[in-house]
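#help-structures

NK: newbie question. if I give both the sequence and a SMILES, will the prediction place the ligand too? trying with flavin-adenine dinucleotide
OV: yes, paste both and it writes out the complex. here, I ran yours:
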Amino acid sequence: MDHPGCSIIAKVVPNSTSTSRMDYSSSGLELGMFYKGDINGKIPSQKHFLDERPDIQCHASTNILDPAGRGHAKSGKSNDTLTFVSTLNIPLSVGYLELRSSNPFIHPRIFLNYYEKPEDLYLMMSSLKLSREMLKQPPLSTVWGVESDVDKEMSDEDWEKYIRKKSFSSPHPCGTVKMAPESQGGCVNHRLQVYGTKNLRVVDASIFPTIPAGNINAPTAMVAWKASRLIEEDYKNKS
Ligand SMILES: Cc1cc2nc3c(=O)[nH]c(=O)nc-3n(C[C@H](O)[C@H](O)[C@H](O)COP(=O)(O)OP(=O)(O)OC[C@H]3O[C@@H](n4cnc5c(N)ncnc54)[C@H](O)[C@@H]3O)c2cc1C
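OV: that's the protein plus ligand as structure tokens.
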């Protein structure tokens, strides 16, 4: 599993003054655009986020975030680029691995399977359409012009082509050795022990049974914390 992302890029329109360019990192922009309450720049708190399980994560950056095209996190020339990124927080599509050899040093084939489920494609399409709409309205449109590949009439088929061509990893791959009953394809049990072995645990993002609805560094740290308790318990029970 992974959180696929896809972006829309805008460039400073000719004749915009340099002072109107976005010279700051994305946080200021996100605050200004998405937080509608406080004009004094007060940081939003949890109560402002009513949906505790949002299905899309959007962020804006003055870097070019287009790994499927022009590479990851390249700074635009003199901050002349704005990227809106949409990420699927709760993708339904699940990928798979194929071993190419019994030799553990040969890399497996990885099939990410993005947008296998139409619901994922629909969500991404809706989010990109909304991003484009925001970029094409003032005040953003007075400074930023959407790049030509999406600055035109687009059918849903066009959007699908764009999304399939431009999508990239968050990168949050996980769940390749999931914790689940063996009968359901699980590789480790609820104590993170690998089925069919003794004293072998897996402690990383690969044991997630489903992908968390958000970035996965903190959940990985929580798995590590829990595993340390499990190992300690087993050690004490043995002695
Ligand atoms: C560019 C990038 C940006 C990210 N940004 C964010 C973010 O902003 N927020 C967030 O929450 N998450 C982010 N992530 C995701 C997050 O960092 C990872 O999902 C998380 O680190 C996964 O932890 P892990 O322990 O499963 O794997 P890893 O952190 O990849 O750890 C695997 C470890 O195993 C070691 N290893 C590999 N092979 C062997 C071997 N054969 N023998 C011994 N050791 C081996 C590696 O050296 C590595 O130390 C980002 C990831 C990337 C790549």
